[in-house]
From TrEMBL:
This is Aldo/keto reductase. Coiled coil: none annotated. Transmembrane segments: none annotated. Pfam families: Aldo_ket_red (PF00248). Residues 47-300 form the NADP-dependent oxidoreductase domain.
């Protein structure tokens, strides 16, 4: 199923996708992982957890699934699930990303967990690795965490390879990160091959703490790109006990959880196509999906503005989160 044929209105919760970053490897920089995952984080244990989440997501109407080469064994776990659930496999859209190589060797304590490289050689290697696992189920392939200085925005060799994927029926997109996301998004919108825009989707971090990319994401939507929001819960900073008091208050007034309220605030943006849940438990996923049915009061959403952080401060805090 090509990404461009995916219609988020197909199910009530289809505007929320499931990202597998938190369960594809034993260590990640999300708060609360000690409580969320089993102490014995073997590949078999996380494969089982991934499949539980994928089953629950599909049953509750999720139709977009997001992985990456750097998410440990996430693509492998997803491929196994697609094989075992042929009925579901026909209905979901699968996205993955290239540009980071996982280097932690299934350890939580590692000097380096992933290495970034946006070269054509890395694209060739990682696309072969992704398709070896996912085959023709890979619908969307994105450049992972583009920044304004990324060579992938200007490298003709990378563009030519991605254009060939488009010819073969794969949708290509970009994801961004860092305090200059807006600049990276606008640069990506200008990339063309043979006069045609190369990137169909833009995935970016956007949440009530870090909304700085909003104007550029609105421009991407206006230009016909599908906007996918990642890290809507700020790596756990907007969920559960870690949520700011103001968010906890607003969620209580709306009779919902802080994560559902924070996700609903993102879904309320008119330019948002999909928002990713990074849930590590089925209970978290169910809470997240409640956002799709939550009616948000504009006055309450306005009051969230007091939580906004300067982009540089937000990204420094994120960079300082320990891998758990």
């Amino acid at each position: 199923m090509a990404f461009t044929r995916f219609h988020p209105e197909a199910t009530p919760t289809a505007r929320i996708g499931l990202g597998l970053a938190a369960v594809g490897r034993p260590g990640y920089l999300n708060l609360g992982r000690a409580d969320d995952l089993p102490a014995d984080r073997t590949p078999e244990a996380l494969r089982e957890r991934s499949h539980q989440l994928l089953d629950a997501a599909f049953t509750q109407g999720v139709r977009y699934l997001d992985a990456a080469r750097s998410y440990g064994r996430a693509e492998e776990f997803l491929a196994d699930w697609l094989t075992s659930r042929a009925d579901a496999a026909k209905e979901v859209v699968v996205g993955s990303k290239w540009g980071y190589t996982y280097t932690a060797d299934w350890r939580v304590e590692a000097d380096v967990h992933e290495v970034k490289d946006h070269s054509a050689a890395t694209l060739d290697r990682q696309y072969a690795e992704s398709t070896a696992l996912l085959g023709d189920r890979l619908d969307l392939y994105q450049i992972h965490s583009v920044t304004p200085d990324s060579p992938a925005l200007t490298d003709p060799a990378v563009h030519a390879r991605l254009a060939r994927l488009v010819e073969d029926g794969v949708t290509v997109g970009v994801s961004t990160s860092g305090p200059s996301q807006a600049e990276a998004i606008r640069a990506a919108l200008e990339v063309t091959v043979a006069g045609e825009p190369l990137f169909t989707t833009v995935q970016a971090t956007f949440n009530v703490l870090e909304p700085s990319a909003a104007p550029a994401l609105a421009e991407a939507h206006e230009a016909g790109r599908t906007v996918i929001v990642k890290e809507a819960l700020a790596n756990g900073r907007l969920a559960g006990r870690a949520a700011p008091p103001e968010l906890l208050r607003l969620a209580a007034e709306a009779d919902t959880s802080p994560d559902a309220f924070a996700l609903a605030a993102v879904l309320a943006q008119p330019w948002v196509g999909l928002v990713l849940s990074g849930a590590a438990t089925v209970a978290q996923l169910t809470d997240n999906l409640a956002a799709a049915r939550l009616t948000t009061d504009p006055a309450r959403l306005t009051s969230l503005a007091r939580l906004v952080e300067r982009p540089e401060s937000y990204w420094r805090t994120r960079a300082a989160l320990p891998w758990r």
